[in-house]
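Students often ask why we bother encoding 3D structure as a string. The short answer is that it lets us treat folding as translation between two languages. Here is a chain of 281 residues written in the first language.
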Amino acid sequence: MIDDKKIEEYLKSLQKALPDYNVTLDNLSDFDLLFKEKNNCKKCKNLASCQNENIGFYTECENDTFILKKCKYKLVKDEENKKNKLIKTLYIPRTIVDAKLDNFDTNTLSRSKIYTFINNLLSNWDNPEKCGLYLYGSFQIGKTYTLGVIANELAKRNIESLLVYFPDLIIDMKNALNEDNTRYEDLFNKLRTVDVLMLDDFGSENMTPWVRDEILSPILNYRMLEGKIMFISSNISPKHLIDYLAIDNKPQSKLKAERITNRLQSLVTSISMDDTEKYKR
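And here it is in the second language, the structure alphabet:
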């Protein structure tokens, strides 16, 4: 047991260290914890090195009531988690969500256009006339990274996006259609209704009448009617889209391809990224 004199001495020293509070015998243990946690926080450099009883929290006294408050590192971590939850990815590494507009290289005309487009879009998000982007060009020039940048910036504004690697999506949807109709419907509805849909590497899949007529066409039609934004990356230029989507030379196929292309053009602004000689972020 600690004798009364030592308790009194510690109480006085604690009161001196915490002049803004009224330290008494009744609340001594609580202020002892508060004092220790304050000292821990002064030395703390990140959430991983937190020495407090509750990681990321410190004890505070407000109106004679002791409460737990989040530290600055916990607040930042929670904000990152909240942002990451708004960025859904399918068949794409989650590391893409680390892409940031601050790191986006504007070393070419196309990148400068994209940078300006993104900033204008974010500034006028409530504008009903807003549209997405169709980024096209050769491989390894940063198209996917650009989509990640946009998803990241949208998440900062609490806007949900779904970034999908399109070729793998088609394979998965075929399997789901044959094995699990519920999962197929869930995937299909998510693609139609998510706030922002991003299709990465469109054109690398094996285009078939089923993909064109049962997947792509209804998704584009729904999003066009509902005014939902889309972003697409592709190695196919807009002028070659009709030939790609037609699959064959039949008049009916050409007509379907033209309809899809027209819907797509109403949803996006096309920018070629082929002025980038190599992959740069």
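Translate back mentally: The longest helix spans residues 209-226. Keep this in mind for the problem set.
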